[in-house]
């Protein structure tokens, strides 16, 4: 069953605030109740002490029953019932006749006769009112001759307390309501951007190229919107590159096939005695077949790399011999293009642990790119080798440097990406995966391949292969 984030957020806010408000309301209610009760009790005890001192100062040594009326008259302005009780617990006199004379069993009276301040709280059956009584002993010297007792109704106090409880309840409900409204607003600020991102993601899944997540706030959700937009733009770029790649592959595969088919038709119609033309046609067919095979191999390598099935098999190889072999293989093509290609070994170190076939593939691919983008008759390609130290590790370094058209510095970060064929890809040959495959091969050797170039200044492709592996 679907349960929205908004519902969970509001529910969480309400649970927290209700628990908090309820706790505060209970504590506040107890505090108010105790405050009022303590004030009443303090007042009664204070007045009892005044009466007790008054009795000792003016009537000590005299008969309590004869002076009880005088005591009551002196304190009759108090809003409490005043009772004078003898040592046996019998009422001698009182401000208002209560009708009950024997109080010997009342808790507060018993405590006062024991030389303590007594307190007793009960519901008066006659009036059905909550009632509070405080009693204190009256003494002649150290002898207890009677008890002074104050009795008061708690009805008014309870009414005031009930009003306070009502105010606290209303305030609690108001706070909970206010927090509910605030939580609704806050939940919208969180949920609405998520709803917007979800809607945009659904549009993107349907292929809407104009879909874009709206960034409402500059927070985590805002950054999520930025990330989604970035991912979508990258997906569109990759889709575009993939489409261009498919188009390029189709074109590149079609070219040798067309050439082979064309020469096959030509050879069918060629006089058998025209050996030179037949040999020339067969050479072209052989060359185009090799080219076709190389492209298929490149595509297969790319597929293996993407699926994680690409493996290298290292052996200790004389890399000088390998580089020289590739140089000799590519030199005839350079000569046909009238490009000056030279090789310089600047180190005597020549044994490296590598997959010979794969490193040969990398070197051929890089030199092929150099030949492709270097002008005929004016071109120069230099292959330099050396041993360098980087990050406390030794590397065999191969630099393939040309003076071709170069690469725009803004494109350098993309040249090793899969399917990338440059801004002017309509004028560019190749599938756009050659350098990507080369980089993966070098990475599998724990090495590095770098491209350094500026537009119009040629390019320098640097390959580093570790010597300690």
Task: Report the CATH topology name of the largest domain.
Answer: Beta-Lactamase
Oligomer: single chain
| CATH homologous superfamily descriptor of the largest domain | PAS domain
| Discrete helix count | 9
Percent of residues in helices: 40-55%
Q: Give the overall pLDDT as a whole number.
A: 83
Going across the major beta sheet, what is the strand order? 2-1-5-4-3
CATH architecture of the largest domain: 2-Layer Sandwich
Please tell me the total number of domains: 3
- Biggest β-sheet: count, sense, barrel? 5 strands, antiparallel
- Radius of gyration using CA atoms only: 52 Å
- General shape: rod-shaped
Low-pLDDT residue intervals, each spanning 5 or more residues: none
Beta content comes to 15-25%
The H/E string reads: HHEEHEEEHHHEHEEHEEHEE
Structural class of the secondary structure composition? Answer: alpha+beta
CATH class identity of the largest domain: Alpha Beta
Explain what you see.
There is one protein chain. This protein is of the alpha+beta class and 469 residues long. It has three domains: 5-160, 2-Layer Sandwich (Beta-Lactamase), CATH 3.30.450; 220-306, Signal transduction histidine kinase, dimerisation/phosphotransfer (DHp) domain (Helix Hairpins, Orthogonal Bundle); 311-466, Heat Shock Protein 90, CATH 3.30.565. 54% of the residues lie in helices and 19% in strands. The protein has nine helices and twelve strands. The strands form three sheets. It has a five-stranded antiparallel beta sheet with strand order 2-1-5-4-3, sandwiched between helices. The two termini are 57 Å apart. The model has no long low-confidence stretch (mean pLDDT 83).
């Amino acid at each position: 069953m679907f349960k929205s984030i908004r519902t969970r957020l509001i529910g969480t806010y309400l649970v927290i605030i209700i628990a908090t408000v309820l706790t505060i309301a209970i504590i506040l209610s107890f505090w108010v109740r105790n405050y009022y009760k303590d004030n009443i009790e303090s007042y009664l005890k204070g007045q009892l002490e005044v009466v007790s001192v008054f009795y000792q100062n003016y009537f000590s040594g005299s008969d309590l029953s004869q002076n009880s009326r005088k005591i009551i008259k002196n304190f009759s302005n108090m809003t409490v019932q005043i009772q004078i009780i003898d040592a046996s617990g019998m009422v001698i006199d009182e401000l208002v006749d209560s009708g009950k004379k024997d109080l010997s069993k009342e808790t507060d009276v018993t405590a006062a006769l024991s030389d303590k301040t007594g307190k007793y709280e009960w519901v008066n059956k006659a009036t059905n009112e909550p009632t509070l009584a405080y009693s204190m002993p009256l003494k002649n010297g150290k002898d207890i001759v009677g008890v002074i007792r104050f009795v008061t109704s708690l009805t008014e106090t309870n009414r005031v307390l009930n009003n306070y409880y009502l105010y606290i309840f209303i305030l609690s409900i108001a706070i909970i309501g206010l927090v509910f409204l605030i939580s609704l607003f806050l939940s919208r600020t969180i949920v609405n951007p998520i709803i917007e991102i979800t809607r945009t993601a659904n549009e993107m899944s349907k292929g809407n190229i104009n879909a874009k997540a709206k960034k409402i706030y500059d927070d985590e959700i805002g950054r999520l919107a930025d990330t989604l937009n970035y991912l979508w733009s990258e997906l569109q770029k990759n889709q575009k590159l993939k489409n261009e790649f498919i188009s390029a592959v189709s074109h590149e595969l079609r070219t040798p096939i067309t050439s082979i088919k064309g020469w096959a038709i030509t050879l069918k119609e060629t006089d058998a005695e025209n050996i030179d033309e037949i040999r020339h046609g067969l050479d072209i067919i052989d060359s185009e077949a090799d080219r076709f095979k190389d492209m298929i191999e490149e595509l297969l390598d790319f597929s293996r790399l993407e699926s994680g099935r690409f493996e290298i098999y290292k052996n200790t190889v004389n890399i000088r011999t390998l580089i020289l072999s590739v140089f000799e293989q590519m030199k005839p093509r350079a000569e046909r293009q009238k490009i000056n290609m030279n090789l310089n070994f600047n180190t005597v170190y020549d044994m490296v642990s590598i997959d010979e076939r794969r490193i040969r593939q990398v070197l051929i691919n890089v030199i092929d790119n150099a030949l492709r983008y270097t002008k005929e008759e004016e071109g120069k390609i230099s292959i330099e080798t050396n041993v360098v130290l980087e990050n406390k590790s030794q590397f065999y370094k191969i630099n393939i440097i040309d003076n071709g058209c170069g690469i725009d510095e803004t494109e350098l970060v993309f040249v090793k990406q899969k399917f990338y064929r440059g801004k002017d890809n309509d004028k560019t040959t190749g599938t756009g995966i050659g350098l990507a495959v080369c980089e993966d091969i070098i990475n599998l050797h724990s090495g590095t391949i770098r491209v350094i170039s500026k537009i119009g200044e040629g390019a320098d492709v640097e390959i580093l292969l570790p010597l300690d592996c």
